[in-house]
Amino acid sequence: MMAMFRSLVSASAQLRPQQPSASAAEGVESQFSCPICLEVYHKPVSIAGCSHTFCGECLQPCLQVTSPLCPLCRVPFDPKKVDRSSSVEKQLGSYKAPCRGCSKKVALVKMRSHIASCSKVQEQIANCPKFVPVVPTSQPIPSNIPNRSTFVCPFCGARNLDQQELLKHCMTSHRNDPNKVVCPVCSAMPWGDPSYKSSNFLQHLLHRHKFSYDTFVVPAPQRSTAISSKLCHLMHCSIGSMTAAAKTNNRNLSCDPHSSKGVLWNNRLKVS
């Protein structure tokens, strides 16, 4: 009789839906957080190739480039194979997690709207420490840094193209375009002229921009220091090689004491 009762209890426990424990509930929000914005998924989408999930809005900038890469694993993917993740949406509606401000249990699907109206969370955001440099400096922190990593196609306005993607895009889509356009790479540089139009933009890209300026060009504040150190290094090497050559010549010339040139060279060495 007891054995039958225990079997009925265990069977009912298995049929009852399991609720996550308090410690597990705290980790549920992190399990359903977007790797880009670090918030609970909003309209989640998944990449077919690697199965990584992101907010639909967060993944949009990656879909604008010609050859998109997964922001998490950097694997190339087809932008046409990005689908809405209905399984994740169902889980967002079935799980709850405590609010990080008021600790109230909220469904994950409503977590974003709750945080936006939670006074405790807003108070925490207001009391967050402001950014300060690690090392004190008297130089002002720049507020408007120009974008020199991605560019806009001057023909059709396609955005978020790096230097190689810009060349590939123009060679594929605008090979026979006769219009004169401004080079977006040159105009982004400090010495660039934003009003100068290249008569043959494709040839300009092929010959002028064979390498990245970020890799080979020294920034203006460091340029004088780099040049000075390079000149000092070259002068040091030149002086060292001249001294070694002079010692070699001195030994060779001193072997012939009757040579007037050797005596004159030795005298010069002695005077110097």
Protein described:
This protein has 272 residues and is mainly alpha-helical. Helices cover 48% and strands 7% of the residues. Strand 1 and strand 2 (53-55) form a beta hairpin. Helix 11 packs across helix 12. The longest helix is centred in the last third of the chain and has 35 residues, at 220-254. It starts with a helix and ends with a helix.
List the helices and strands and how they pair.
Elements: H1 2-15, H2 22-31, E1 44-47, E2 53-55, H3 56-63, E3 82-84, H4 86-94, E4 96-98, E5 105-107, H5 111-117, H6 119-126, H7 163-173, E6 181-182, H8 184-188, E7 197-198, H9 201-208, H10 213-216, H11 220-254, H12 260-271
Antiparallel strand pairs: 1-2, 1-3, 4-5, 6-7
Helix pairs in contact: 11-12
Estimate the helix proportion, in percent: 40-55%
CATH superfamily grouping of the domain at 25-126: Zinc/RING finger domain, C3HC4 (zinc finger)
Structural class: mainly alpha
**What is the mean pLDDT?**
75
Quickly give the CATH architecture of the domain at 25-126.
Answer: 2-Layer Sandwich
Rounded to the nearest angstrom, the radius of gyration is: 34 Å
In total, the number of strands is: 7
Largest sheet composition: 3 strands, antiparallel
β-strand percent reads 5-15%
CATH topology of the domain at 25-126: Herpes Virus-1
- Strand arrangement, major sheet: 2-1-3
Write down the secondary-structure element order. HHEEHEHEEHHHEHEHHHH
Task: Tally the helices.
Answer: 12
Distance between the termini: 116 Å
Give unreliable regions as ranges: 13-20, 218-223, 253-272
CATH class of the domain at 25-126: Alpha Beta
- Give the CA-based shape: extended
